[in-house]
Amino acid sequence: GENVEQHPSTLSVQEGDSAVIKCTYSDSASNYFPWYKQELGKRPQLIIDIRSNVGEKKDQRIAVTLNKTAKHFSLHITETQPEDSAVYFCAASISGSSNTGKLIFGQGTTLQVKP
Amino acid sequence: DVKVTQSSRYLVKRTGEKVFLECVQDMDHENMFWYRQDPGLGLRLIYFSYDVKMKEKGDIPEGYSVSREKKERFSLILESASTNQTSMYLCASSPPQGSNEKLFFGSGTQLSVL
């Protein structure tokens, strides 16, 4: 079946450095790729998303790139801050008969930003 | 702001018990989802519903069932709880595909089956 692979599982950076998380997906029909951030003890929240007709999207310190040919997409966080510490999940939309916007999630990356 | 409310934050049940997890959303969303979250496995879809009384299996439906009698409420049922169902359960809702697929999550229910 369809799946999303996410790497690395843990990432530790110094404050101010950049962090990159990578995901690959298997369903060539996927056309929507969101990223969710989950702080400790809290619910996942959407931080950025990209659609298949766009190669890159940026929102302040966060950017996402998409390579449809290679079926991979990445999250880039620049000038990391301690409040960026969280678990990050990538996801890809799955085509299906219900057409409900169903998502398949990656395994998650625990990002630690050291002050 | 969209609110997705799960009835319990923590729940402890015994093996073999029937368990109900309730989820309510207040934004008239068509789609509702139940995920379970386990370390190293990410969020795995158990069931989803795209309309009242409509449901479809996700990736790991075994041992679970769902009910959606009203648009705002989506219940997850563990017919006979087992220890391997100890997990964090997250409910989510979203508007119809094509408008905005953004998922709005509840706070989660940490279920422990002893």
Describe the structure.
The complex is a heterodimer of chains A (115) and B (114). Chain A has 115 residues and is mainly beta. In chain A, 0% of the residues lie in helices and 55% in strands. In chain A, strands 2, 4, 5, 9, 10 and 11 form a six-stranded mixed β-sheet that branches. A five-stranded antiparallel β-sheet of chain A has the order 1-3-8-7-6, with no helix packed on it. In chain A, strand 4 and strand 5 form a beta hairpin. Chain A is globular and about 40 Å long. The mean pLDDT of chain A is 92. Chain B has 114 residues and is an all-beta fold. In chain B, strands 2, 4, 5, 6, 9, 10 and 11 form a seven-stranded mixed β-sheet that branches. The N and C termini of chain B lie far apart (37 Å). The model of chain B has no long low-confidence stretch (mean pLDDT 92). The chains are: A mainly beta (115), B mainly beta (114). The interface between A and B is medium-sized, with 25 and 26 residues.
Structure, briefly:
The complex is a heterodimer of chains A (115) and B (114). Chain A is mostly beta strands and 115 residues long.
- Write down the secondary-structure element order of chain B: EEEEEEEEEEE
Low-confidence stretches of chain B: none
Percent of residues in helices of chain B comes to: under 10%
Q: Characterize the overall form of chain A.
A: globular
Strand tally of chain A is: 11
| Separation, N- and C-terminal Cα atoms of chain B | 37 Å
Biggest interface pair, residues each? Answer: A-B, 25 and 26 residues
Strand residue percentage of chain A: over 45%
Q: How many β-strand stretches of chain B? A: 11
Number of helices of chain A: 0
* Helix fraction bin of chain A: under 10%
SSE ordering of chain A: EEEEEEEEEEE
The shape of chain B, in one word, is globular
Given the structure, what is the number of helices of chain B?
0
Radius of gyration of chain A (CA) equals 14 Å
Say what oligomer this is: heterodimer
Largest β-sheet summary of chain B: 7 strands, mixed
- How confident overall, as mean pLDDT of chain A? 92
For the residues shown, what is the average pLDDT of chain B? Answer: 92
**How many strands, what sense, and barrel or not for the largest sheet of chain A?**
6 strands, mixed
pLDDT < 50 runs, ≥5 residues of chain A: none
